[in-house]
Amino acid sequence: MDHKVITHWKGNSQFESDNPSGKTLLIDTSEEDGGHNSGLRPKAMMLSALAGCSGLDVVSILKKMKVEISDFRMDTYGELTEEHPKTYHTVAVEYHFYGTDLNEDKIKKAVDLSIEKYCGVMEMFKKFAKVNTSIHYHNN
Fold first, then answer.
1. Which of 38, 130, 17 is nearest to 77 (CA)?
2. What is the residue extent of each domain of the chain?
3. What is the DSSP letter of 135?
């Protein structure tokens, strides 16, 4: 195994989970579902993992290409099935780039390389969901 994560019950609906980096995070559910809303939700964390994985690729590739951006954000949406177990059937990842005179061709190439070649989380998502991506350029 390459990764080991320990997730420890902290009472009620709260869990603390570690990471190979040594950092920890709290997992909880909503008050309506019996939790205290004090932590991250498991399914939503999957969307964060998807965006984080692809985002790390994109900024690394843009740095190698010497492409300047002033800001970068990803909005990630997941649509759940109606029946239990509820899983994401469709996911959208919107890449938003901000800057002056953005090099749209190189930015698109960086995003495409992440989506098609480098992002392992994206590849996993493609096995169970339709993944739609879009790029939005915000020139200052």
1. 130
2. 1-40, 42-139
3. E
What DSSP string runs through 85-132?
Answer: SP-EEEEEEEEEEEESS--HHHHHHHHHHIIIII-HHHHHHHTTSEEE
Task: Give 96-127 pLDDT, tens digit per residue.
Answer: 999 999 999 999 999 999 999 999 999 999 99
- Nearest partner of 58 among 78, 74, 75, 77, judged by Cα: 74
Three-state SS for 22? coil
Name the amino acid, one letter, at 26.
L
- The pLDDT, as a whole number, for residue 14 is 96
Largest CA distance in the chain: 52
Are residues 110 and 58 in contact, defined by beta-carbon separation less than 8 angstroms? yes
* Rounded-to-integer distance, Cα 110 and Cα 53, Å: 13
Q: What is the pTM of this model?
A: 0.94
* CATH class of the region 42-139: alpha beta
Percent of residues in the chain assigned helix, strand, coil, to nearest 5: 30, 35, 35
Residue with tokens 């390459």: 2
